[in-house]
């Protein structure tokens, strides 16, 4: 993973002529500017880890698994939000963890946590580092140093129960590696967030991630059957049976705990047979409201697409749903939707037919297979485009929420207005696009992509727009996050999300499992 951008440098996406002219004409951006920083120009905050602390950590994990080198600290200095990437491009001293520690066993993690609690060191669990909410920021709080606890060595398929369809995967296994390990035995997890290529099993569990195939396979938290968590107060082995009435579900409590309650070392997950067939169909709707009503009908009827997504007019207009063709003018007007069906030949056929019937009855026009295939081919490409936009002097970021079907239109309008007016006040027009990509019987997510011109202090420019959008989300009945999690960025809205008593309950759990407060300070809990 690049330190100041997304993913593999070889997969970079230069801006097409279509996007370049869009930037120039609509946003007043000069795409020939270069806003990136050479790594040699970066000054990293010096490590504050003392020599005795380094020796103490090295005694636990071995000296080769403790590093205070800038080259190791910088890639763990934060996640991959636009704010993170803009910070990486800023001149002046950059924040970074004081050390990177890479344990190989649960006992080593327990010993690190004990040492950190005794010595007053903050510990930030680190999976793939793809957080977009400041989840891995090296916040020291009142501690003398912050260490990044990298889970990469927990990288195995621990076990597979083929009869029950359950697999135990190490926390550091990445998305592609999980599929590779499972497919070698005829199984698949089916969790494909856009960050799939770099994010990890532990990170998915810690953030209640949701993948693009959630209509078929569920959110990541719905896949979890159990997990092991090392906390400063001891080890928890959670989840005994496929279902249980033994009180409140502690698996649910630790899913989404964002490294503040403990370090997840392995996760037991529901898996399914590797799908034999995929069927594709793209659709056009006259407008977003008609499309949303059709998706609701599909979900409430339960016809079973694996993927179902709907882009609004703006997103359809610039062809963002099929990122490889952005700016090309092959889809005009209306709203594009895509559906995919995975499984056996017979089962995908029947689900496809039922879904078709519902969509056609609700105003859809079929576009054939191609738009859905193109979407699948380009599904992991958009983050590369964001890098090129930032480099060219445009601001580009995403944010997300969810609400009930009856409130969807109101919330979408309120967030769009908040972003447009906040960015307008900073002196730039804004292109606000939106899609639905996760559906439930009672509601859906809304995922916004914003492109604007960079004006003044760009970090402050985006912060102000995001604050306005977050306030609008809360004021209009949305959740502050459907799948990006809380981290530092959404923490100010947690009280509105769960109430003061809810926050007090989270604090009480934190005080029980992490009395010294060393785990991921400044995240999740207000
Ligand atoms: C381009 C892009 C696209 C994205 N698309 C999606 C998407 O489609 N769906 C989605 O849900 N999210 C998405 N995200 C957000 C992000 O990928 C998810 O939050 C992901 O689950 C984080 O996994 P990770 O392994 O990278 O965790 P990290 O970023 O390393 O950590 C995230 C949080 O979890 C904690 N953590 C990590 N591992 C552990 C562990 N083993 N034990 C305890 N705590 C731990 C960290 O301390 C931190 O608070 C996207 C991000 C980017 C940059």
UniProtKB/TrEMBL annotation:
Transmembrane segments: none annotated. It holds the Pfam family FAD-oxidase_C. Substrate binds at residue 386. One of its GO terms (biological process) is lipid biosynthetic process. FAD binds at residues 125-131, 207-210, 258-264. Belongs to the FAD-binding oxidoreductase/transferase type 4 family. The record marks 309 as: Important for enzyme activity. It comes from the Bacteria. The active site is at 447 (proton donor/acceptor). This is Alkyldihydroxyacetonephosphate synthase. GO terms for molecular function: alkylglycerone-phosphate synthase activity; FAD binding. Keywords: FAD, Flavoprotein. Its cofactor is FAD.
